Amino acid sequence: MITEKAEQSEQSEDVYQSRNGDKPKIIQRVDPVVYAQAANPSLIAEDLQARYERQGFLVLDNVFNKREVDSFRQELNRLNDDKEIKASAEAITELSSDEIRSLFKIHEISPVFKSLAADNRLAGLAQHLLNDRVYIHQSRLNYKPGFRGKEFYWHSDFETWHVEDGMPRMRALSMSIILTENDQRNGALMLIPGSHKKFVVCEEETPENHYSVSLKKQEYGIPSDECLASLVADGGIVSAIGKPGSVLIFDSNMMHGSNSNITPWPRSNVFFVYNAISNRVTWPFCGLSPRPEYLCSRKAIRAIEPRPFNVAVGQSIYA
Ligand code: 6CS
Ligand code: FE
Q1: Which of 36, 112, 192, 209 is the 20 to 30 Å CA partner of 90?
Q2: Quick one: what percent of the chain has pLDDT higher than 90?
């Protein structure tokens, strides 16, 4: 059994120092974006891989067919209606209602999303881009319900995963599968093209148990107004709109956020975060205790063997 002290000694060099009292500033990324040597045409076309490297994200349309999307949405609703799940630690409700805002660790809670996480169109592509075997660092359903679904303020996921989880380098990416139509009106994800190549140093120390607040409304680990304005001046802002079955891939250090949803239309997406096995989390760089396992795989780091999603797995639950 590794004691906490021993785990703390695992600490690697803090290449991306943030929230340690330094003034907010922007430094250059020192890690590659795409670790693969060349595009693997069976997984991604060369021009798309080059675009991903340059802008830090891609929206791939029609990756999953209607039958597959129907099984995802049936599972989304089943989990949302399950009282035990709603009362669990993994379920984060909205500040202004008891509606689920996010449900974490769905790659373990749900047989459907466990199977989806290993699908070659996702895990196979992540393995290729990161040029390493991959594991799920974090998975979640972001429901962003209609009428009162609140915003996710601008942030770099990597800044949080580095400072609060101990992820050493930028060798991870998120894949978001669109389950309900995402458009400008109902709070589609907004991204700043090219921002993934700059690391925004945030100020102020991380509070204890920050996640108990940040997952509802993030106020630490967010860019200063000046840094944000500078990123937007360079790259602009793009909305990741797409139909159910599309996939948004974005680099771990992509600056992103999304507006509140006051329309009647939920903006629900599945998120899988693939991290390279060689980049497994060490000790949090903020020096605080590690976040819970449902936010950051630490004790259960297992490389994924990509295999096709089994659409029948949903039917077995609902039979
Ligand atoms: O703290 C985290 O890990 C979560 N927070 C946000 C706003 N995005 C990434 C992740 O879900
Ligand atoms: Fe995020």
Answers
A1: 192
A2: 83
Residue 189's SS3 state is: strand
- Ligand closest to Cα of 297 equals 1
Phi, psi angles (nearest 5°) of residue 48: -70, -40
Q: What is the signed CA dihedral for 48, 53, 59, 61, rounded to 10 degrees?
A: 20
The whole-angstrom distance between residue 197's C-alpha and the CA centroid of its chain comes to 17
Atom of ligand 1 nearest to the CA of 174: 9
pLDDT, tens digit, 9 for 90 and up, residues 20-74: 988 999 999 999 999 999 999 999 999 999 999 999 999 999 999 999 999 999 9
What's the pLDDT at 94?
87
User: Residues with Cβ within 6 A of ligand 1?
Assistant: 138, 140, 152, 155, 157, 160, 211, 214, 218, 295
Among protein residues, the one with the nearest Cα to ligand 1's atom 5 is 215
Taken in order of first residue, the domains within the chain and their CATH numbers are 4-279 (2.60.120.620)
Atom of ligand 1 nearest to the CA of 104: 11
Mean pLDDT of the region 68-81: 96
pLDDT category of residue 298 using cuts at 50, 70 and 90? very high
pLDDT of residue 59: 96
Q: What is the pLDDT of residue 9?
A: 59
Residue nearest atom 8 of ligand 1, based on CA coordinates: 157
Burial of 254-265, coded b for 16+ CB within 10 Å and e otherwise, reads bbbbbbbbeeeb
| The model's pTM | 0.94
Please give the single-letter amino acid code of residue 128: H
CB 263 within 8 A of CB 204: no
Best residue among 189, 214, 252, 296 to mutate for probing ligand 1, ranked by most atoms within 8 Å of CB: 214
d(CA 155, ligand 1 centre) in Å: 9
Distances (CA, A) of 196 to 52, 71, 235: 10, 33, 10
